[in-house]
Amino acid sequence: MSKARTVAIGIQDYGKLRESGCFYVDKTAFIREWWGSNDDVTLITRPRRFGKTLNMSMLECFFSNKYADRGDLFEGLKVWEDEELRALQGTYPVIFMTFAGVKAVSYEKAFMGIKKQLVRLFSSFPELMGYEGFDRNEKAALDRISEEMSETDAAYSINLLARLLEKYYGKKVLILLDEYDTPMQEAWVNGYWDELVEFIREMFNNSFKTNPSLERAVMTGITRVSKESIFSDLNNLNVVTTTSEEYATAFGFTEEEVFAAMDEQGIGEEEKEKVKFWYDGFTFGRVPDIYNPWSVIMYLDKRKFDTYWANTSGNGLVSKLIREGDKNLKYHFEDLLNGKEIEAKIDEQIVYGDLSGDENAIWSLLMASGYLKAEGIIQEEPEDEPLYRLKLTNFEVKRMFTRMVRGWFSGTGDYNDFIKAMLKGEEEEMNYYMNRVALNTFSSFDAGKQPSDKKEPERFYHGFVLGLMVDKAKDYVVKSNRESGFGRYDVVMEPKDAGNVAVIMEFKVRNESKGEKTLEDTAENALKQIEEKR
Questions:
Q1: Whole-Å CA distances, 1 to 76, 265, 268
Q2: Which helix or strand (DSSP H or E) is residue 94 part of?
């Protein structure tokens, strides 16, 4: 039996990974499928940490003339079985750029981040500097590439580089852009969406449409940003999402690949079902049982089950959307945490502007990001978005969301003190700590859109219920009343052990129209409502 390969963590450079002889799952069939598609421009969306960057690096190593005569990187792999493709190895000028690091709080800083990436990109082609074959205008344009370049020059820069490379090598260019949507998400979160969209739209139009030096291009990202935002000018774009049948096994590990890796590493059969429980659950196209590759690799290295993928960066927007969401969104989130399905219309074109008020847009983002899986389509009408049955993807995702909800109240110990006082029946302490919890966390549930007096207590209340649900799930079944009327919400905590105390809580917003002039009046009415419902 051959020796197990070393499992390396975080290597996204294909050449380095292959040269090291470390563990690698053969995804080179992606090269054959993509090249055989003959698509001008391809956009592929997959959740984060699903091998997008490694596959893009693989494309560069295969096609780039910088890797001429490096067929050894592909020997013994699927792509090397194809003689026609072998002849293409190392024969194209390739532009490979990533937006992964462009995360900024303002447009100015984001634009500077993009310019730095562009300067770094140009510097990777030193053969162009001083080349006498360029005309005066081309030389002048090349000289303007710097961190001080204008928006116009930056938006045209990839087009320029492609033209210069074609002129130098006498061959059209392949363009690879990784994590194209990272700046877009940051722009939405930080309030400079319109400025960035205008620049990116112009840049993409110059790079991928009006570019006679382009042979083919691939972009990767997590989401499919709506065509109206940045792709309106690209009529040559093939979009491949998680529901598309193309490249279904190119990103992520199939069950066969995972179990083969476990066999190689000498991990017993009894662990396979646990790995499936934790890290399986993704479906791409019609291929089920796709595993999260980052978590599987971390598990193979650590031999311990944990929320590896869910603990990586990128959950901030999701937490914000759920925390600030209305009561219906939090009701559905309760159902998901309880292992139930929800129904939602999924639009794979993410319109970031809709995330503030459209619940379906939020579920669409969570599905694209890998947090939800489609259990089936309930209804599919030509004139409308399909209605899906959705569940949390796997146990790792559930653990992540449980920790996320706990994190909403983790800034103070008052929350835990409130729960202890409540279960002991210590009213004075309970009131004290509840007031402190509300004071310290209420604003984090504020959607910040001039909300009504009713809406903000609702947002806090439903977040509070989620906190109870995840914190006491071991000992209690926590139920919230979804039929309550204006200003009234109740919670029942049913003990799983009959020897423990049950809890009924009535939350009320003071309503002066019902004669509640003081908080004492409101509390009296709440007690009456509890008695009436006994």
A1: 18, 11, 16
A2: strand 94-98
CATH architecture of 14-240: 3-Layer(aba) Sandwich (3.40)
CB 512 within 8 A of CB 454: no
pLDDT digits (tens, 9 = 90+) for 149-187: 999 999 999 999 999 999 999 999 999 999 999 999 999
Average pLDDT over residues 129-133: 93
- The Cα 46–Cα 69 span in angstroms is 31
Q: How far, CA to CA in Å, does 157 sit from each of 57, 114, 129, 164, 263? A: 21, 11, 15, 10, 48
Instruction: Tell me: pLDDT of 251 over 90.
Output: yes
Q: How far is CA 433 from CA 159, 238, 241, 495, 521, in A?
A: 61, 55, 47, 22, 21
Q: How far is CA 78 from each of CA 12, 26, 66, 85, rounded to the nearest angstrom? A: 20, 7, 22, 11
Question: From CA 350, how far away is CA 446, in angstroms rounded?
Answer: 23
Average pLDDT, the chain: 88
Residue-level pLDDT at 504? 80
Stated as kind and residue range, the H or E segment containing 105 is: none
- Give how far the C-alpha of residue 40 lies from the chain's centroid of Cα atoms, to the nearest Å: 26
Q: Which CATH number fits domain 316-407: 2.40.50, 2.60.40, 1.10.10, 1.10.760?
A: 1.10.10
Q: State pLDDT tens for residues 32-75.
A: 999 999 999 999 999 999 999 999 999 999 999 999 999 999 99
Q: What is the predicted pLDDT for the residue at 454?
A: 53
Q: Check: CB of residue 172 under 8 Å from CB of residue 213.
A: yes
Task: Map out the domains of the chain as residue ranges.
Answer: 14-240, 253-302, 316-407, 409-532
